[in-house]
Design a protein that fits this description.
Elements: H1 2-20, E1 25-33, E2 36-37, E3 42-47, E4 53-58, E5 64-69, E6 73-80, E7 87-88, E8 92-94, E9 99-106, E10 117-118, E11 126-128, E12 133-135, H2 148-154, E13 158-160, E14 166-168, E15 175-178, E16 181-182, H3 187-195, E17 202-208, E18 223-228, E19 235-246, E20 250-261, E21 265-288, E22 291-315, E23 320-345, E24 350-377, E25 383-406, E26 412-421, E27 424-439, E28 442-464, E29 470-472, E30 478-496, E31 501-520, E32 530-547, E33 552-563, E34 574-578, E35 581-584, E36 592-603, E37 607-627, E38 630-655, E39 658-675, E40 678-698, E41 701-710, E42 713-715, E43 719-721, E44 724-735, E45 740-747, E46 755-761, E47 764-771, E48 776-786, E49 789-790
Parallel strand pairs: 1-9, 15-18, 35-38
Antiparallel strand pairs: 1-2, 1-5, 3-4, 3-6, 6-7, 6-8, 10-49, 11-12, 12-17, 13-14, 15-16, 17-18, 19-20, 19-48, 20-21, 21-22, 21-47, 22-23, 23-24, 24-25, 25-26, 25-27, 26-28, 27-28, 28-29, 28-30, 30-31, 31-32, 32-33, 33-36, 34-35, 36-37, 37-38, 38-39, 39-40, 40-41, 41-44, 42-43, 43-46, 44-45, ...
Amino acid sequence: MRKKMSVMMAVALLITTQLLAQSPGKISGAVTANNKPLRSVTVSLLLANDSTFVKADITDADGKYSVPVKKAGTYLLSFSLIGYEKKISKPYVMEEGAEIDAGTVSLDVKSNQLSGVTVLSKKPMIEVQADKTVFNVESSINATGSNALELLQKSPGIQVDNNDNISMKGKTGVRVYVDGKMMQLDTKDLAAYLKSINSNDIEAIEMISNPSAKYDASGNAGIINLRLKKNKKFGTNGSASLGFTQGVTPKGNGSLNLNYRDKKVNIFGNIGGNLANYENTLSLYRIQKDTLYDQNSVNTNSDKSVNIKAGVDYFVDNKNTIGVMATTNFNDNSFGSTGSTMIYYNPTATFIKSLQANNTIPGSRTNVNLNLNYRYVDTTGREINFDGDYGFFRGVGRSYQPNNYFDSNNDLWYTVVNRNYTPTDIDIYTAKIDLEQKLGKGKFGYGAKTSFVITKNTFDFFTDNVSGDPIKILDRSNSFKYTENVNAAYVNYRQQLNAKWSLQTGLRMEQTNSEGVLTRADGVTQADNTVKRSYWDFFPSAAVSWSINQKHSLSLTYSRRIDRPTYQDLNPFENKLDELTYQKGNAFLRPQYTNNVELTHTFMGFINTSVGYSHVKDYATEVTDTVKNATFLQQKNLATQQIINFNIGSPLPIKKWWNGYANFWYNYQIFNGAIGENKVQVEVPSYGAYMQHSFTLGKDYSAEISGWYNGPSIWGGTWRTRPQGGIDVGFQKLLLQKRATIKIAATDILYTAPWSSVNDFGGTYIKGKGSWESRTFRVNFSWRFGNSQVKSSRQRKTGLESEASRIKGGN
């Protein structure tokens, strides 16, 4: 099956290469209003005979545009911008490869801007922009019934490994934002949160590889921002949806969005819920010293979650806006595991004993974020944004884990019962202000932010006595309190130097104060019980763009970034997963620093090719190590990491009824370091591809096929992974005067997504493999009601942009 998929992807990439090799013509011109250049106007190329959308461009700061035209024919241009009357050009007859100057078009301000327009067009599924790639989830059929984590796995340039670690263009350290707010959750809790968000609640996924100084400096691989749906329509309106997914187990989801908007106020809210059971398998074949462990387990997850978002924007006048917003997530998640481990003396393959271990972990998580926002904007270009935020995370986990050992006759030898109780409380306070105004011929931005985080973790470990009563083990129980204060300020300047050159440069300063205090239940004091740190960092960024001619442009970007340890990774606890495996924290874990530089070439405004280099100092990852007969996992500063990456992506306007998108990435990673006496010197290439094709079939039917493929790679410097991929297909039908939609999809139809990898480090050899419910059947029904007139909503980013991705809950 993997061979079939590889052949399909190779053929698809060959078709893509041939398509991209063609040299299209173009129609160019300029747009003004009141005799001044008008930027951000959407210029759409349409077929003259039926107004079918072909391609679009956005006017630049000088009001100029250039729309590529691939095939000969007769076309129209449509000019639109919120607040201005839409205008349609005269027909243009294009010869293949011809270039037409359409002159200057002037748009008129609407006499009544609040009347809005009725939106009938559909966004492209993938948009390649100068500073980011956007996956418009609403436009994808195959996104039906997916959760946010599954959507990330299928997004171009994104990889998600078997432990739910997320990377972008082969680089770990990516930061996940939701509505402009960084999620301060560790890998486990972030994955649980993303799984609780259904595709029905997501408008788009933005992938930003080199953020400017305005953004928090954390995240060496860049930013992934999930934009949740926020209704932009006037009057009272909304939408509702229901979905069903069948994998190994059934799953259901639903959502309701409501909105009221008039001249003075916009009230919005949505609620979504999931009810699901998940099943996955895990096999670990481990050789440690002279002992072989053959472990196989089936893990189940029962998930009940509710997401609620509500807010109000009050438009004081045409310059001032005040808003409040609350986002909440309630998640009950019960984990269960049933496993069997056969243990042998490896030199002679002699059976020693077997371990039958079960684990039951009922848990709950609550995540709440409250935001107060003020925005000022005037006609001179001055803009002020203030955000005050409070967020909290509450997580509770309990584990009950009996370990039964059997002899060669399969008779019960002895039993060890472990239990733990792991509550987590995290409070985050932030305030930030961003200002922007004209300076000379450019825009000058500056701002400041302060954040204060308090995280409290308790880890109580118990084992049962001969009577079956739990006894607290004091030397393995502790509480950990971590406080962190980060103060930041930045300046940023951008200017269009002339018709061909533009510049953006910025500098961010961050000052960090932190203290971690471990209190052991047995009263023992060790060197790592209290760790204090205080340090300053500067993070420059710059971008230079050169428009060589109408077909070619180049941009060069640079940024320096930091990845601070997650809060719980600093806690030097020991969390026993079973009798042979446990995790422990590292109070001396250092932040890692990354310098990124990237050169991007854009051809005809829609084919983006980039080459980049990253150097990571104190690269940190979860390392597998051994003590006696047990294996433990711990975050450590492993090595320096260097990455050379290549990426090409482009929409594919093949026919008027057939559109697609193709993306290919390649990177070469070099790890160089040591842990104790174990050296880490690894060089590994990796590559991957993503492709999507959508088809308009007529009579309100449409279809989609998409696929992703990740070649062999390496995770964490020590795990070598095997290839993975998947192909999805879907169909859609519009109903009830196009106000309702039914979508049907099948995912991973060739069942090529299961993973496998090998680790040979620290005296331990591990061969692992596993699967999850990647092959599914999904159906979704959605209905839109109320007013269909829209106005652009104001863009809001809360102040919790950097703190919430580092919360680590404790099951």
